[in-house]
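Researcher: Quick test of sequence recovery. Tokens follow.
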């Protein structure tokens, strides 16, 4: 299970969590009046005495979401892509899937006509007895007789009623007061349309942007907003991550000053989108997820703590027993649990273990990459302290198993893992971490697929942080092995460099100084584990900045993680062979430059670097 609590809570909240753990049940409650469904010609109203939701039959839009006398939204809807191919469900056929006093499940199906995305879209909303949240799920369907198609952005948006809640909560780094609607009106636009300079209110002097709150979905159990004034909260709770694409390192938008969303397509930061061929029958269910509302007398922080406990309750109940008769969503007894022991052996790092490693099952295309897999479901779990793992509730099928861990470059994989219902035991999976050399001369950073251990690793999510690099670092940046500290002397992103007061950005060289007691007998290898690359060509020089040894073009690029305020995009590893004649006894200098890049978004975020000697 993921670790949902990553910050140190005050004692009263820890006590609160301990007492609430048994009280939180899926949906937010189980006792109360019957669930009712009231129809008119255009709308349907779901109510249970706690929640009252009004939904338009024609387009599956939520127009009102009443909780404790407050309307928790000004709009709630599903949408695809952006102009010129923006699509929302329309001309829906309304149906009632389930109607009992305990649960109502209604559906609205939008059949493809001539939209750019040749999918039928079926949206469902589910209200349970006693629940303080509304479930929703969506099904995309591409019958074999539909033409080839694709979709990038695919999301559900929950726009908040203005100024209903003052605080936003994403993780331990991002939980603060939001600018009010008046603060946003008096803000100053910037050259990046998504970023606004806030001039008034509690966030005065900062920038506000939806990208401030990007996060790895698999690291989160919930995200949303809460109020100390009204003592209420509104949260997006996914319940499971199996329906998201691109695996556990994929991030995207969560909440913002205007509301909350859930990105099924995770298309920002180099998402692949879904592509379906003509003649291919394809279907995928997204969700169910929970639009959760809560009230806590302790205020916003208490609402946040309760929402995290609720996220654990939803995860424990997955797959939900109430969603039946849907081939896209097999029940628990038609799924399988896959277990084993992941063992990591690294001859150059004997202390490395497989504790807390990611182990997952995915179905990418032949020679594909799980980081770019959107059509199927992915299942991942963290290992225990000894490398033991269980991946639960997997749909039967043939998968490739992948595993990676902090401290090791690259990943382990095992093809043709067949999952059946019940238990699949894989036994010991041993990964002998490969190396190009026999010893490590030096290393910078920690292999973890992000640049978070470097400067700005804890505040990369602020707009225009990159404009201050020239005030913080010299050009060239000189890093001295054995003297410098990567936490203070190595930036999270290598970009172009604009001197203070200058609008002319120039290439920014980074130089690594290190000593060798002797010249190696063969070629050394420079390892470049890359967390993000955008329009990047890395010129590598050794002991002569006027002579390029090799230009490295990272094999995985894109995602615009710098301007979109991320700490990584997609991961790759590149190796540079350095002939012995380029090295010398004593001080050596390896220079990394982005000489060939001119764009403002061009950058490299290094995950980890080392030099291995033969």
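Model:
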């Amino acid at each position: 299970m993921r670790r949902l609590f990553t910050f140190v809570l005050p004692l009263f909240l820890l006590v609160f969590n301990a007492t609430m753990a048994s009280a939180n049940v899926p949906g937010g409650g189980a006792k109360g009046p019957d669930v009712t469904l009231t129809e008119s010609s255009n709308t349907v109203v779901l109510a249970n005495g706690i929640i009252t939701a009004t939904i338009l039959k024609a387009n599956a839009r939520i127009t009102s979401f009443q909780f404790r006398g407050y309307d928790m939204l000004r709009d709630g809807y599903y949408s695809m892509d952006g102009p010129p191919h923006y699509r929302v469900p329309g001309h829906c056929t309304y149906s009632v899937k389930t109607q009992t006093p305990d649960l109502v499940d209604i559906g609205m199906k939008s059949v493809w006509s001539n939209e750019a995305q040749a999918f039928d879209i079926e949206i469902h909303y589910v209200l349970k007895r006693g629940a303080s949240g509304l479930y929703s799920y969506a099904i995309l369907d591409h019958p074999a007789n539909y033409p080839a198609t694709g979709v990038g952005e695919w999301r559900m948006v929950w726009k908040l009623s203005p100024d209903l809640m003052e605080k936003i909560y994403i993780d331990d780094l991002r939980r603060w007061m939001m600018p009010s609607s008046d603060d946003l009106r008096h803000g100053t636009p910037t050259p990046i349309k998504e970023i606004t300079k806030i001039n008034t209110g509690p966030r005065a002097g900062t920038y506000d942007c939806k990208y401030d709150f990007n996060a790895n979905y698999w690291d989160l159990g919930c995200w949303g907003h809460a109020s100390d004034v009204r003592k209420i909260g509104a949260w997006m709770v996914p319940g499971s991550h199996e329906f998201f694409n691109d695996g556990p390192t994929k991030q995207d938008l969560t909440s913002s000053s205007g509301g909350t969303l859930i990105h099924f397509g995770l298309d920002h930061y180099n998402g692949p989108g879904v592509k379906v061929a003509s003649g291919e029958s394809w279907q995928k269910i997204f969700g169910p997820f929970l639009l959760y509302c809560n009230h806590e007398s302790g205020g916003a922080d208490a609402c946040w703590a309760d929402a995290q406990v609720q996220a654990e309750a939803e995860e424990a109940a997955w797959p939900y027993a109430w969603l039946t008769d849907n081939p896209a969503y097999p029940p628990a007894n038609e799924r399988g649990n896959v277990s084993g022991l992941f063992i990591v052996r690294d001859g150059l790092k004997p202390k490395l273990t497989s504790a807390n490693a990611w182990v997952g099952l995915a179905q990418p295309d032949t020679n594909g990459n799980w980081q770019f897999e959107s059509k199927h479901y992915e299942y991942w779990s963290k290992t225990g302290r000894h490398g033991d793992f269980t991946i639960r509730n997997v749909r039967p099928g043939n998968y490739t198993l992948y595993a990676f861990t902090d401290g090791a470059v690259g990943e382990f994989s095992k093809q043709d893992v067949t999952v059946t219902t019940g238990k699949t035991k894989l036994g010991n999976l041993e990964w002998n971490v490969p190396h190009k050399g026999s010893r490590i001369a030096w290393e910078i950073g920690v292999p973890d697929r992000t640049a978070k251990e470097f400067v700005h690793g804890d505040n990369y999510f602020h707009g225009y942080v990159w404009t201050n690099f020239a005030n913080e670092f010299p050009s060239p940046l000189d890093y001295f092995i054995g003297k410098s500290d990567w936490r203070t002397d190595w930036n999270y992103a290598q970009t172009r460099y604009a001197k203070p007061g200058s609008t002319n950005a120039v290439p920014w060289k980074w130089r690594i100084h290190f000593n060798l007691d002797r010249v190696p007998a063969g070629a050394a290898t420079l390892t470049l584990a890359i967390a993000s690359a955008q329009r990047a060509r890395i010129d590598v020089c050794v002991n002569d900045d006027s002579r390029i040894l090799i230009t490295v073009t990272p094999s995985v690029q894109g995602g615009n993680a710098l301007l979109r305020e991320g700490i990584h995009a997609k991961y790759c590893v590149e190796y540079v062979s350095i002939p012995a004649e380029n090295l010398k006894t004593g001080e050596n200098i390896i220079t990394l430059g982005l000489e060939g890049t001119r764009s403002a978004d061009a950058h490299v975020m290094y995950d980890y670097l080392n030099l291995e000697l033969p």
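DSSP finds five helices and 41 strands in the chain.
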